[in-house]
Design brief:
The chain has one domain. 47% of the residues are buried. The protein is mainly α and 311 residues long. It is globular and about 55 Å long.
Length: 311
């Protein structure tokens, strides 16, 4: 068995497209949350994404049926759980704290690859993760790491699941097409969304007005604004998630996961252009560290895996 070669530069380009698109669409979640709930958003976005995939399947020759259905299902469940926990934590934790927890994923990638797959951790990789995470803390502010309750651990759990899903993309789903993995991911989120809507329809909860009720809000009649920005989310997510899936298929997860830090400066840039949000000098310094982390991980020599060593 031969290993899939790493194409680090191509992976970085794919991540850059992913970050630019997702950072733009995610800036409008605040608009979506005004009118509908998290569960209806996931269900509606999945329906739209499936329609777009179906329309593109024949002319683009897309292959949507998985070669390993159980592997794709397991990967979809892990990534879906990570995203549900991430968005759910936003209901009762500061955005900075939740985002910082999710970006512990590169640390978990290295640990999982070391203890589950026996791959060595290089000193330069450790340094890159530490530098990148320090940059995240500076961008988000020191308060991102405050708190020691179970609720505060939820974003870190999300980061661990996200790391597991990223590794599964390469280790379990080798040979699957990006569109197959995309369909599995959206399908899982759609199922979760439908279940959440059904539960909240049967057992409705008190719902605050506006974005504060995003998590507790059950099914409502959708507004035109909700439908439009959810469609933008669906189309953008298909492109963006497709790019990140491709990146994890062509390069080591430990490398790609550090590249993902670029979504923070991308989000900040879109926040400035769309809403006039500005950054402090600490945030700018943090972004510089994030870029440095990406450069370090790209320069790290590729360790030989136990599989390759036995060829």
């Amino acid at each position: 068995m031969t290993e899939t070669p790493n194409r680090t530069l191509a992976a970085f380009g794919a991540v850059l497209i992913y970050a630019s698109v997702i950072a733009f669409t995610d800036n409008y979640v605040r608009v979506i949350a005004q009118d509908a709930g998290l569960w209806q958003f996931h269900a509606t976005r999945t329906a739209m994404a499936f329609v777009l995939l179906a329309l593109a399947a024949v002319p683009l020759g897309l292959k949507l049926w998985p070669k390993r259905p159980k592997a794709v299902l397991a990967r979809s469940a892990i990534h879906g759980a990570a995203m549900v926990i991430y968005f759910g934590a936003l209901a009762f934790l500061p955005v900075a704290q939740v985002a910082a927890g999710l970006f512990t994923a590169p640390i978990f990638v290295l640990l999982i690859q070391r203890f589950a797959y026996g791959r060595p951790i290089l000193g330069l990789q450790i340094l890159a993760v530490v530098v990148g995470f320090a940059g995240v803390v500076l961008v988000l502010g020191p308060e991102a790491l405050s708190g020691a309750t179970f609720a505060a651990l939820l974003p870190v759990i999300s980061g661990a699941l996200y790391a597991m899903g990223n590794i599964a993309t390469r280790e379990w789903c080798e040979g699957e097409t990006p569109e197959t993995i995309l369909a599995g991911f959206f399908g899982m989120l759609g199922v979760i969304g439908i279940v959440g809507m059904a539960v909240l329809w049967l057992v409705p909860l008190p719902v605050p007005e506006g974005p504060e009720g995003f998590l507790q809000r059950g099914p409502v009649w959708p507004t035109g604004e909700f439908m439009w920005w959810t469609f933008v989310q669906a189309a953008g997510s298909l492109l963006g998630v497709g790019m990140i899936v491709k990146a994890y298929q062509i390069a080591e997860a430990s490398r790609v996961s550090v590249f993902e830090y670029v979504i923070l400066p991308a989000s900040a840039a879109w926040g400035f252009f769309l809403w006039g949000e500005t950054l402090s000098w600490l945030a700018v310094a943090g972004m510089a560290l994030i870029v440095l982390a990406g450069m370090l991980i790209a320069r790290a020599p590729q360790p030989q895996s136990p599989i390759a060593a036995r060829q």
